[in-house]
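Troubleshooting log. The previous structure file for this entry was overwritten by mistake, so regenerating from the original sequence record. Sequence copied from the archived sheet and checked twice against the printout by T.R.
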Amino acid sequence: MQHILEVHHLKKYFATQKAVDDVSFNIEQGSIFGMLGPNGAGKTTLLRMITGIFFPDDGSITFEGKKFDAINDIVRIGYMPEERGLYKKMNIGDQALYLARLKGLSKAEAMEKIKFWFQRMEMETWWNKKVQDLSKGMSQKLQFVTTVLHEPKLIILDEPFSGLDPVNANLIKDEIFRLAKNGSTIIFSTHRMEQVEEICDHIILINRGNKILDGTVKKVKQDFKENLFMVGFEKDPGYIEPNAIFEISGTKDDNIILKINDGYKPHDVLQHLLGKGLEIISFHEILPSLNDIFIKLVEGTPLARQFKAIDA
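Regenerated output below.
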């Protein structure tokens, strides 16, 4: 699949701090790409280089098959920064119109798109309100609209759900899926793992300016699985004797969690349990959450060091 964005060995230093240290990745057209990392990891610095706000000290960025040109390419990018950039005393409607015109839309085009988005986001009555009179969540909705209304090819959302109640968070989440389905590419930057797990196709994990993980959500979870399975029984199975096939790791909601030993497969477990006369009603693998993987890698466990060595 075609890459809309290719980042090659980007570096950005501030005095002695390595904000971004030799980071590379590719983003496929139409995908939802998650950029994860703790606060201060270098995510925002990366985004600011991708949008031309910062120039890299080294490395290159390719956008739609050509070297990124901050002056000409920026009109095809929509960027919603974590630090919101709205004019507090300006009417919301006039502000949306002004920002749309800056992205190259005619007044007629801008008005048409503003009306469309204000209706979709339940903002029709907001035109004469001022930003300073809005709640944080309402400001967030306006910032989202001004980011996407010019139909950018690449949409960059830095902590887009901050301050939103569950209803409005779902509203924006649905719009993210719709935009991606219609061909837009989304970069979604956050430290909230559960949001990424639900929304993103592909992720990278940044920590201390370095990329320590890169892959599809499905593959990453498979790479870090620990052969754990949850088994549900028709009735209490009682004591299960130790054996060479698996170990009992714990219980949850009347189910048993077991770990399959090296050299054995799930069907070996099933055959063993059924051979004991136990009635099984459920049997499924437990995959680690992105939050579990994130903690393991960022805390610098041996697993993290091993992964970094392989990735290098």
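The radius of gyration is 24 Å. Archived copy saved in two places this time.
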